[in-house]
Amino acid sequence: MSRTQAEHLAQAHSESGLHCSESVASAITHLFCPELENVACRMATGFGGGLAGSRQEACGALTGGVLAIGLLCGRSNPEQGREAAYQISAAYRERFMAHFGATICQTLRDNFSTNDTRIACRSLTAEAAGILYDVLREYEYTVKTV
Question: Residue 144: left (phi > 0), alpha (psi -120 to 50), or beta?
Fold first, then answer.
């Protein structure tokens, strides 16, 4: 698997009708923990469009990625460490911000070079999945096959 495959998968999810958060969460979990893909998609549903479509909060492609990170290395009790999830989430956010120039949904939409936000959001979603794929590989997470 490659970054390009992560991008294509997120793009396909988006084109099928899933929103940004669902698409990134589903694509990443499909590649890194496929047994949780449906769970990730369901968990991401409320985060689309900057939190429930408000456009006023973090981009769904960013939050969907952070949800996927949590499924990969998050904790399930307070005795477990959260450092890995924080470190990888911070790296993803920093890379996202450096690439897109913002993390807030409406700010990103205002900066699109086209009025067709559906197409622009799909492109951003695919690129965000690629960014997260790279981050996860840098932290030595392994792509799994089903």
Answer: beta
Claim: this prediction has a pTM higher than 0.85: yes
CA distance 7 to 52: 23
Give the separation between CA 123 and CA 43, rounded to whole angstroms: 22
Which residue, among 15, 44, 35, has the nearest Cα to 132 in the 3D structure?
A: 44
**b/e code 12-28 from CB counts within 10 Å (16+ = b):** ebbeeebbbbbbbbbbb
Domain ranges of the chain: 3-138
Residue 93, phi then psi, degrees to nearest 5: -60, -45
Of the candidates 52, 65, 53, which has an alpha carbon nearest to the alpha carbon of residue 95? Answer: 65
Six-digit token string for 28: 């990443």
Per-residue pLDDT tens over the stretch 103-141: 999 999 999 988 888 899 999 999 999 999 999 999 999
Give 98's contacts (C-beta < 8 A, 6+ positions apart).
none
- The predicted-structure confidence for 63-113, as pLDDT tens digits, reads as follows 999 999 999 999 999 999 999 999 999 999 999 999 999 999 999 999 998
Q: Let me know: does 24 contact 133? Beta carbons within 8 Å.
A: no
